[in-house]
Amino acid sequence: MRKDLNMEQMEREENAYTGIRPPKEVEQIVVMIRLELYNKGLPCGPKALRERLNEHEALKPLPSERTIARILARNGLTCGRSGWYEGDQSDDMPPVKGGSS
């Protein structure tokens, strides 16, 4: 059994989205809130984003912290990044639209 399993955290996230992947609208909201917090110099990790969504957005059910983390990774918004840039290469990157091969 994992030692870092936090039952209280799991109970707080009981209303988390349980689908395979959140709808595009949810992903867009998470990205916009993340960029807003980042540009203001505020904490913008999954936990802070979930708290902000819970306080200020009419988004129910809320995505879990892990889902938010996946959304951030898919959009290149991790570790102080603000998106994907030319020359970036990662397995998480979306396919380039209209790019030459």
Describe the fold and architecture.
- The structure is a single chain.
- The chain is mostly helical and 101 residues long.
- It has a domain at 16-74.
- It has four helices and no strands.
- The protein has helices at 7-12, 24-39, 46-56, 65-74.
- α3 (46-56) crosses α4 (65-74).
- The longest helix has 16 residues, at 24-39.
- The model has no long low-confidence stretch (mean pLDDT 76).
Can you describe this structure in just a few lines?
By secondary structure, the chain is an all-alpha fold. The chain has helices spanning 7-12, 24-39, 46-56, 65-74.
Task: Work out the helix count.
Answer: 4
Oligomer: single chain
Average pLDDT across residues? 76
- Structural class, by secondary structure, is mainly alpha
Q: How are the elements arranged and paired?
A:
Blueprint: H1 7-12, H2 24-39, H3 46-56, H4 65-74
Helix pairs in contact: 3-4
Which properties best describe this structure?
4 helices; 0% strand; globular
